[in-house]
What does this fold into?
Amino acid sequence: MRSTRAAGLALAAALLVTLGAAGPARADGAFPDSLSVLVPADRPQYIGLATNFGLISSSDAGASWTWVCEGPITNCSTLYSVSAPPADRLFAVSADSLVYSDDDACGWEVAGGSAVAGGVVDAFPLAQTSARVLAVVSPNGVGPQTTYTVVSSSDGGVTFDAVLYTAAAGDVVTGVEAARGDANRIYVTIAHGSRFTPMLAVSADGGATWRTIDLAPQLDQAGIRLIAVDRTNPVRVFLRVTRTEAESLGVFDSTNDTLTTPLVFPGGLMTSFVQTAEGPLIAAGRLNIASSVQRSLDGGATWQAVAGAPHLRALSERDGTIYGATDDAADGFALATSRDLGLTFRPLMSYADVGAIAACVRAECQETCKNEVALGLWPAAVCTATEAKPRPKSSGCAVAASPPVSFVSFGVEGALVLVVWRVRRRRRVR
It folds into this structure.
């Protein structure tokens, strides 16, 4: 069987072919696509849609939309996330760096400390407090980092001052996440050794000690990535399992180290997942170019297909509303909502609904805006329009006492393309 990395590259290549059939190419070679949905729990009017050409957002519940293009330090950004309230600090993994913004993407800063020792490949703001952020740092051939590490920040991601986990030489760490119900329970996914054996490292004491579980007896040489820790059961974690022939949802129980794969997308990709506050689970994938959306009402044991669902890229939930990033070219809209726990989705926004560049970056985004107009993404008036409503400023990075109630999924496209980019970059710098 091919290695995990080879399988990942094959899937990425297949993904790019699929996207190529969906719409026009951008000047940088990427097809306009959505990556994730951002819905901070304490800002009910705010909706953010992270894309591979910047951040689209609304501060009036979708009545109007503005756009912020990528800049020098946010180039190729993926894995967008938001910290716990009231800070609502925005994070993104950009090229080799972790970057953050306190003003809805108008201005960005690069995280410091041990996060700059190599390349950041994953980041996770804890649900319990906006002060703590976890990140995975990899060797990138530029910084002094020689092995993968998991590092922690206690100042909201400004600096990372503690190393919680150091991988063995040759191991690849693909993700980190802490449980919503127990901040001390941390999970790390690993591709071990030259065969990229799937392994899971678990800490129950905030990273002071770790226990490593070899998943090869159950998964052989499949690759794994973290999706989410169960929001009500900290010992249960959802994994994305990647094989050459299929992707599947894995459910791991750390009380007895058992792993099941109750949902498989044969010959396809798993693109998104959300565990709703009401209980049902929703998972989406792609079979060739067709969409596949599944619901589970029994914690993931059994699944039922959702008819007529859009091509979901990512899923989030806030106050009972599910937000889905969709395929603007295939579906005719880029963002949809469901108010019946994923049974039906209604269009909310398409790229063409963007009305203006955010005033704070209007000058900087002009050339990129013209490129998007040339691709037919939106009308030329967007580039010169005045923002319909001023963007409220963030209150800064304060510590939140209570966790948010929105639950955010991954977006598969950005993660896979990022793997390809990093492999190529290492070849250049070495």
User: Anything to note?
Assistant: Residues 1-29, 392-408, 412-430 have pLDDT under 50 and may be disordered. The chain is about 10% helix and 40% strand. The first strand starts at residue 34 and ends at 38.
